[in-house]
Inverse folding.
DNA sequence: GTCTATAGGGGGATAGAC
DNA sequence: GTCTATCCCCCTATAGAC
């Protein structure tokens, strides 16, 4: 693997485990047995690295939802939640949960990428919920946009709460999400 | 107001707007027209300040829920959500949303306080939901503990997403929470 | 593309005077 | 209880050799 990719992979891991403002070039250079200057060659400033990572995440998300496209709404939502489960196993939180809280401290280029990512994710979930309503696999009373945001916020924070509590909050949230998409027929 | 309280108030604001690792003693000393050494007198190490703030938040929460005690479950939950609305107006996120993501970077004393706080909040919401089920003001199909965690995670992350999106996600989440506590009678 | 060397600033923390 | 002065470490970033 080329150095640039290795740097990005490790930086992403560091961001999602410690936060953007809590990792340094030294963390990367020492782990990869290179020098800080080598990182600066690939990413002149730290925010260039940060921006590149968010952008790559956006591209990966676009690839994912494209691959999932033919599956049922339920299955697509399961696939989406599976990415959180994968993160959880690696003891990582999602990039939105890591970068969002420190939004105000981020350089503008990173803020823009992050905001763009948030709209892409939110609009995708809306589409999935709408499709589920249309084919009858989902049923709920809440406003569709609001329900969508309730789903992503609870997923985002579940990874954070997993750390703080030491419990598997994500599993609980997953259960609540699917129960909440099946309005009971009495 | 005494200096110690002023320091804590400002530090809390800084933590909840920028994060624990992204504020410095200089931010506080310059704003209060004192010197860094004065802060070190009251809080020898930064983590002493951090711990004190979390502990104060725990005490305040205990006071709040004690004051709310006689109100209906619905009203108590509204009061709780009102604290998020208050934070939102001041452009602050909750302390759990700020400190949780950087949990791994925090000194042990702060981690313990944070974890203790999480259990206090979660157990309170469980009590409220249970009371609401008992008196018939709430109705839902989900497991009570899981439903409780879904509520606090969505609230926590709504403040974060407000920043990233520039929208009022908290209002949406509030709406979804109350709708989700009224299972429809068909 | 990676290195050495270094600049320049900011961080938390402490000693001792007042 | 607050100050001045200072220490030491880590940070991001750049210049120039290889």
């Amino acid at each position: 693997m080329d150095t640039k990719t290795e740097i990005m992979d490790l930086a992403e891991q560091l961001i999602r485990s410690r936060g953007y403002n809590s990792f340094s070039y030294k963390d990367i250079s020492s782990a990869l047995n290179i020098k800080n200057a080598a990182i600066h060659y690939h990413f002149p400033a730290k925010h260039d690295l940060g921006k590149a990572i968010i952008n790559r995440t956006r591209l990966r998300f676009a690839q994912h939802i494209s691959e999932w496209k033919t599956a049922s709404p339920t299955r697509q939502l399961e696939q989406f939640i599976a990415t959180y489960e994968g993160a959880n196993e690696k003891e990582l939180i999602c990039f939105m949960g890591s970068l969002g809280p420190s939004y105000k401290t981020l350089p503008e280029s990173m803020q823009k990428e992050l905001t763009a990512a948030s709209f892409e994710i939110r609009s995708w979930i809306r589409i999935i919920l709408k499709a589920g309503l249309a084919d009858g696999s989902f049923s709920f009373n809440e406003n569709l946009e609001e329900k969508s945001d309730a789903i992503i916020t609870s997923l985002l924070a579940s990874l954070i709460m997993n750390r703080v509590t030491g419990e598997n909050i994500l599993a609980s949230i997953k259960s609540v999400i699917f129960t909440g998409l099946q309005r009971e027929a009495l």
